[in-house]
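Hi support team,

I've been running sequence recovery on a batch of backbones for a student project. Most finish fine, but this one hangs at about 90% for roughly twenty minutes before it completes. I'm not sure whether the input is malformed or the queue is just slow. I've pasted the structure tokens below so you can try to reproduce it. Let me know if you need the job ID as well.

Thanks,
M.K.
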């Protein structure tokens, strides 16, 4: 399997590329895959001039929850790109359902290739996909290529808590990266613990249900689906104990 596919499954907390064909089924009950459209909308309203028609690029857009919400509430043009065709098909249906299909463009693609050609956006979004574009420094440099000189980046990631060695950067380390890459932190929204626990519990319930259905359909792959349940639970435990999920609004300053 390709490096792109390996990063894809990692971004969706899977352990093996063998799971890729089953991800749309496993995640069929979830529209929001990681990022909070509400938090992003609040930040955009506060810090961006949305009186004119701004252009937004939503990379690894999943099923389009953020893209559709922003187009609906702001009347802006949004282009969403994701590697999974079933997710893009779902996003297009949601855009039609919400009456914003004229504002939203969704396409199947590898965002590592998209960042080489997409340009002149007012805002680019990268929500909860880990290191698909590389290290945090590499990621920000690549995202900056897609926006205007003083454009904005919405990044959904995590701060590592103190004294936890899990490979996540602390807030202070993120601030150093921002300084190095020529962006400034305008706003940050850390996920509340109670809200996070409730959300994790709800989503994990949906995933367990679908994984158990797949076990019955494909008994020879039961271990594969059980492994996905366990990896999802481990991610929930990590989010609840060792890291702080955070949405960050950045602005390019050089």
């Amino acid at each position: 399997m390709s490096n792109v596919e390996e990063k894809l499954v990692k971004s969706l907390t899977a352990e093996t590329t063998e799971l890729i064909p089953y991800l749309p089924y496993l995640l069929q009950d979830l529209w929001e895959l990681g990022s909070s459209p509400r938090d992003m909308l609040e930040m955009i309203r506060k810090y961006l001039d949305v009186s004119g028609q701004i252009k937004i690029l939503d990379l690894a857009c999943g099923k389009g929850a953020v893209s559709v919400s922003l187009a609906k509430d702001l009347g802006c043009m949004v282009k969403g790109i994701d590697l999974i065709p079933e997710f893009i098909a779902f996003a297009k249906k949601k855009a039609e359902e919400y009456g914003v299909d004229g504002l939203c463009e969704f396409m199947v693609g590898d965002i590592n290739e998209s960042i080489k050609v997409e340009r002149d956006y007012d805002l680019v979004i990268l929500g909860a996909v880990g290191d698909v574009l590389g290290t945090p420094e590499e990621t920000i440099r690549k995202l900056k290529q897609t926006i205007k000189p003083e454009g904005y980046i919405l990044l959904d990631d995590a701060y590592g808590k103190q004294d936890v060695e899990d490979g996540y950067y602390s807030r202070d380390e993120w601030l150093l990266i921002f300084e190095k890459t020529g962006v400034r932190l305008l706003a940050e929204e850390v996920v509340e613990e109670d809200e996070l626990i409730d959300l994790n519990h709800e989503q994990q319930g949906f995933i367990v249900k679908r994984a158990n259905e797949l076990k019955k359909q494909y008994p020879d792959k039961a271990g594969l689906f059980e492994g996905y349940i366990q990896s999802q639970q481990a991610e929930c435990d990590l989010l609840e104990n060792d890291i702080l999920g955070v949405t960050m609004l950045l602005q390019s300053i050089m």
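--
Follow-up from support: It reproduced on our side and the slowdown came from queue contention, not your input. The chain has a mean pLDDT of 88. No action needed from you.
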